[in-house]
Automatic annotation (TrEMBL):
This is Vacuolar protein sorting-associated protein 53. Belongs to the VPS53 family. Keywords: Coiled coil, Endosome, Golgi apparatus, Membrane, Transmembrane, Transmembrane helix. Gene3D superfamilies: Vacuolar protein sorting-associated protein 53, C-terminus (1.10.357.110). Residues 356-721 form the Vps53 N-terminal domain.
Length: 1171
């Protein structure tokens, strides 16, 4: 089943019929192609497509010209100029159709889409112009006028332009117009054009039914419609079936073109049938010639005036009265005459006027009853005028009859002249045929003579070649008897060439016998020359013959194509001693003595160059051929030895090195060089075969022995490093064992590259990866210091861990470079198998372990200080400066970080160390706070200050170096978030502890604000730190659950997604106001101190200014019975911290700003205490 017909798509239509636009549509580059189309023909090496359709187009051109001439000849027909415009457009459309379907312009040409677009535009313009012609028949406008014609021209040009640009846009994929979905082109071609034709047909049916006296023209218009519909159905739906049924001679395009032509012809026939003129005269095709159509009767007196009164131009059987614009209605009878004394001449002029009206004339002549007295005079004048006109008409008719007789006589004379001319042409044609036969006879004789000449020439040349062959055979026989091989070598090619020339004459017995004799002589001479060369060497391969005679014999054998026999004989003679000396069971043949084989060949080559070379032509390259035969025999010997003997790595390595050296030396000796397209001989540039791999390929299957040896050697090296002392390379800052091991890798790789670049190199790369993994596990990770909390790590252990990290990073970088180098040198098909990913992972794991050891070491240095956190929280009496344990932690961290920063070579590893150390110290501090038995409000405030100090210490950790300039650098945002999240957990816990337990709602509100997830365990921990009795804790927990549930249903709290680690945010004013009201923060003066910032305000105000504001307002405050100055101070500090700092924002402050914050905070606390 074919492609279904879809609206807006051409795939189904173009799959059936070959349309001009089909190759330019579709998703692919070639467009749509029909399943069956008409055959093409070749004319002068050019393909012509749709030949039958082109013939119909040519016929259509002639028919269109005829129709245009006939339409133009009907000068008085309605819509003559408008209808001829339709045929002009059709004429141009046929020309473009001829160009597009014939293949004159190839489909691949850049101008082809523009011709197709022009054809489609002319099609739509013709349909539109035909529809307008249907409107002309109703006489809604004056036909033939400038307004009518320019309306036709401009609108048709507009329709042509629209269709043209839609077509070009579709073919070029402009905007929404695409080739894959040409909906615009589809609508214009398959909907707009048929709509215009249908409107034309309907309008013409209305004209015929309402205005004409007969309905015969309906048959013409019906036939036009039927022909058009049949043509489209055949072309679109039945084209492939027609094409396949008549063997591709024609397709639906042929029948569609015929039906379109018939439809246009029927439209012309219909127009011609409804525009027959009803005047007395009509104009024929000859210019200015009038033909009498109907004679007037003598008694028909007023016919001329009736014709003048009504300019009747219309359809057959009906007249449409056309009046000028100055005509008016019949005046009333009471209108007075223009002048009572009008003369007869003025009346005659009125009668001759083109706009004469009988009623107006009578009214003007007889305006009242008194003027009726002149009726006789006026009647006489009119009668006289009528008689004069009739006489003039009869005179003109007689003259016309005389001219017709003269024309008839002229026509008869012309016919007679044409007949005479035809007779003369026939005579000339007969004479031409006679001359043609005579010329044909002459040319046949000339052709026969040409054949005879060619045969004679060929026979003469054959006889000459036969004489040459007989003479050459006789001369060769004499040279053979005299053993003159040099001269015989020159004659042999001539004999071979002459024998090949007689290949078509083998059936001639004499020639066949001569050919057999020449072939036998050639073989006999070649055999004798081979024996001559073989006798020139004794069984030991020594030269005993004449080199010049042997060289001539070689040339003779080369001409007779017996070169291979001499080469085989010589090489076998020379290598006979080699196979006898190097027996497989002898010691001299073993792998460790492979150099003796090459020494033997060098001696043979030297002997050849000194003695044997003159006996052979230089072009034979006998020395190179001998070396190749030697290489093949040696390869077979070594393969058998390797397969049957035990192989030692050192012997294999030495043998491979000797073999590769021999192969390279052989290439140099024989001038074989490598080029981009292969190997060639130096100087001549002829292609050559290299010696490389000719022998060494025998070692390839046994390179696993080499790889195993290298693996054992490197494994022993790693074990030595494992047991040996820890030493370092001061230049690189890494362990000296790593540089030594990588040097061994380089030497092994160099040696393997000289032996093989195949599977052995891939196996060696895998060995390197395994050794690196073992080195990372057994050497690097094993040398990391073992640090516990009971024993603080010395600085030497930190340097040792840094050394291990540097070494692992150095080895990982070297592994990546090693992988790249091996991938460049290994065979192309094995590059994907080279991978060091496992070894790099192991080395990076060692780096992580080293950083972990560093963090453990620094933690052990801070262990004593961290253990005093709970004691400091329990015994603090007043809020003061930062605690002593913070100073200890800062000192230990700074000291260790300076050492680590100087010892670590990679900046990214130092960043990782800082991240992990900050997270570890913050976690330990949080755990220490949580382990306190009970924390008082003063202790919580002190711990909050300590947390801020600890955060400052951790924030400046990445910039802790010996350089003062580096201290001004800012830590990264990611590191600041790590510090803020770590310390923020402890701060959130302490801020919750600061809130009084009564009322419970205030404590729960603060807890929910800082811990939105409302974890029960954390709340129990808060209650424990605040000293709430275990019996009272369930009541707090129930209130927590109730308040958490109610806030979860509140839109503003339910939608808030505060992270659990946030220290404080920018809380909304409503929750804080509610919290302050529960805590009794009211001033008697009606004012309150608020430090809450909105969501758009700056989160980092000046804390010193805030402190001064609070302290300045303390004197004006009247405290309630439940609050004292210390309580207000605590709350002010708490609110200040809550509204001033967030975990993410505070962590990104510059170091100077954070120091100023801490100082202002301490001054604030001191002022509060004094107040």
């Amino acid at each position: 089943m074919g492609i279904p017909y879809r609206f807006g798509y051409y795939d189904a239509i173009c799959g059936t019929v070959q349309m001009a636009a089909c190759p330019l549509l579709g998703d692919n580059q070639v467009g749509y192609e029909p399943t069956c189309y008409a055959r093409n023909i070749e004319v002068r090496n050019a393909l012509i497509f749709q030949m039958a359709t082109l013939i119909i187009d040519i016929i259509a051109l002639f028919m269109t010209i005829i129709m245009i001439v006939h339409v133009r000849s009907k000068y008085t027909a309605v819509g003559r100029k408008e209808m001829v415009m339709v045929f002009y457009i059709y004429f141009l459309m046929i020309i473009l159709d001829f160009i597009t379907i014939s293949g004159i312009i190839p489909i691949s040409s850049v101008v082809y889409p523009y011709f197709v677009a022009g054809y489609l535009g002319l099609t739509s313009a013709m349909c539109w112009c035909l529809m307008l012609n249907g409107i002309v028949g109703f006489q809604w406008t004056e036909d033939g006028t400038a307004a009518s014609l320019w309306t036709f021209r401009l609108t048709s040009l507009l329709i042509f332009g629209i269709m043209y640009f839609i077509s070009i846009g579709t073919f070029k994929n402009v905007g929404s117009l695409t080739k894959s979905h040409p909906i615009g082109l589809f609508i214009m071609y398959f909907i707009f054009n048929p709509f215009c034709l249908l409107v034309y047909v309907v309008l013409q049916v209305i004209v015929v039914v309402n205005t004409l006296d007969e309905y015969w023209p309906l048959g013409n218009i019906s036939f036009a419609l039927v022909f058009f519909v049949i043509g489209q159905v055949i072309q679109i739906f039945l084209s492939d079936k027609i094409c396949e049924g008549i063997k591709h001679y024609v397709d639906g395009v042929f029948f569609g073109t015929i039906c379109t032509l018939l439809s246009v012809m029927m439209v012309y026939k219909y127009w011609d049938s409804i525009t027959k003129e009803d005047l007395e005269f009509s104009v024929d095709g000859k210019g200015n010639t009038w033909e009498v159509k109907e004679l007037l009767n003598d008694d028909d007196e007023f016919a001329p005036y009736a014709g003048q009164a009504a300019n009747t131009v219309g359809y057959q059987g009906v007249s449409f009265a056309q009046t000028n614009s100055h005509e008016r209605e019949t005046p009333p009878a009471s209108k007075r005459a223009d002048s009572n004394d009008s003369t007869a001449s003025e009346g005659a002029k009125q009668l001759d006027s083109a706009g004469f009206s009988v009623a107006d004339y009578i009214d003007r002549q007889f305006p009242d009853e008194a003027t009726l007295e002149k009726i006789d005079v006026i009647a006489a004048n009119i009668g006289h005028r009528l008689a004069t006109v009739k006489q003039e008409i009869r005179r003109q008719l007689r003259e016309q009859s005389d001219s017709q007789q003269q024309q008839t006589q002229s026509i008869e004379a012309t016919k007679t002249a044409i007949n005479e001319l035809y007779q003369r042409i026939s005579e000339m044609k007969a004479k031409a045929q006679t001359s043609e036969r005579t010329v044909l006879d002459i040319t046949q004789d000339i052709k026969a003579l040409d054949f005879a000449k060619r045969n004679v020439t060929q026979a003469t040349a054959t006889m000459r070649r036969l004489q040459l062959l007989v003479g050459a055979v006789g001369q060769l026989r004499q040279l053979k008897a005299q053993k003159r091989y040099a001269e015989a070598a020159k004659i042999l090619p001539a004999i071979i060439g002459l024998r090949e020339g007689f290949g078509d004459y083998k059936e001639v017995r004499a020639i066949a016998r001569l050919d057999e004799a020449a072939l036998a002589l050639q073989r006999s001479l070649a055999s004798m020359a081979v024996q001559e060369v073989q006798r020139g060497f004794d069984p030991q391969g020594l030269l005993i013959g004449d080199p010049e005679q042997m060289r001539a014999a070689c040339l003779c054998c080369c001409s007779a194509d017996e070169k291979a026999q001499i080469i085989d004989s010589y090489c076998d003679t020379q290598l006979r001693a080699y196979t006898a000396i190097f027996q497989l069971d002898d010691d001299v043949s073993q792998l460790e003595n492979v150099s003796r084989r090459y020494a033997w060949l060098r001696r043979i080559q030297r002997n050849y160059a000194e003695e044997h070379a003159p006996a052979f032509p230089d072009a034979w390259r006998m020395g190179e051929e001998l070396s190749r035969r030697f290489a093949c025999v040696t390869r077979d010997h070594l393969s058998e030895i390797l397969a049957t003997r035990e192989i030692r790595v050192e012997h294999l390595t030495a043998a491979v090195a000797e073999t590769q050296a021999f192969e390279a030396q052989s290439d140099r000796n024989f001038g074989i060089i490598k080029r981009e397209d292969g190997f060639a001989y130096e100087g001549s540039g002829q292609p050559a075969q290299t010696f490389g791999g000719l022998i060494s390929c025998a070692f390839e299957p046994y390179m696993a022995v080499f790889v195993e040896g290298e693996k054992d050697k490197l494994t022993r090296l790693v074990r030595k490093y494992e047991r040996g002392p820890l030493d370092s390379d001061p230049e690189l800052g890494v362990l000296a064992s790593s540089t030594e091991m990588l040097f061994q890798f380089r030497e092994s790789l160099r040696q393997c590259a000289g032996l093989s670049t195949g599977t052995a190199m891939v196996d060696l790369a895998n060995v390197f990866a395994q050794v690196l993994s073992s080195y990372a596990r057994l050497v690097l990770e094993a040398r990391l210091p073992r640090i516990t909390a009971a024993t603080p790590a010395p600085l030497d252990s930190l340097q040792q861990a840094c050394m291990v990290a540097n070494t692992a990073d150095y080895c990982a970088s070297a592994a990546a470079q090693l992988e790249q180098k091996i991938a460049e040198r290994v065979d192309a098909g094995l590059r994907d198998k080279v991978s060091f990913s496992s070894s790099r992972d192991a080395l990076l794991s060692s780096v992580n372990a080293s950083i972990g050891a560093l963090v453990n070491g620094v933690e052990s240095m801070c262990e004593s200080a961290l253990n005093t956190v709970s004691d400091a929280a329990c015994h603090v009496q007043a809020v003061g400066d930062q605690s002593a344990y913070v100073v200890q932690i800062a000192s230990a961290v700074d000291t260790a970080t300076v050492v680590v920063c100087q010892a670590l070579s990679g900046a990214r590893y130092f960043r990782s160390y800082c991240d992990k150390l900050a997270a570890r110290i913050a976690a330990r501090f949080t755990a220490a706070v949580a382990q306190c038995a009970r924390i008082s409000e003063v202790g919580a405030e002190q711990l909050l200050l300590d947390a801020q100090a600890l955060k400052s210490v951790l924030i400046r950790l990445p910039t802790t170096t010996n350089s003062q300039t580096d201290q001004q650098q800012q830590p990264s945002a990611a590191y600041a978030r790590i510090v803020a999240q770590g310390v923020g957990r402890a701060e959130s816990l302490l801020k919750t502890v600061l809130v009084p337990s009564e009322p419970a709602e205030a404590l729960i509100d603060r807890f929910l604000l800082l811990f939105p997830e409302a974890p029960r365990e954390v709340f129990r921990q808060v209650l424990r730190l605040k000293g709430v009795a275990a019996a009272d804790q369930p009541a707090f927990i129930r209130k927590l659950q109730q308040l958490a549930k109610s806030q979860a249903n509140t839109p503003d709290l339910r939608d808030a997604k505060l992270p659990a680690h946030m220290v404080s945010g920018a809380p909304a004013s409503a929750p804080l106001a509610r919290q302050r009201s529960r805590m009794g923060e009211h001033t008697r003066g009606g004012s309150s101190t608020s430090m809450v910032f909105g969501p758009t305000e700056s989160p980092i105000p000046d804390i010193s200014a805030a402190g001064n504001s609070i302290s300045g307002s303390m004197g004006r405050m009247s405290l309630g019975p439940h609050h004292d100055a210390l309580g207000i101070t605590r709350h002010a500090i708490n609110e200040t911290i809550n509204t001033e700092q967030t975990s993410d924002t505070a962590s990104t402050l510059p170091l100077s700003t954070r120091s100023k914050l801490n100082e202002n905070l301490r001054r604030l606390v001191s002022n509060m205490r004094r107040s």
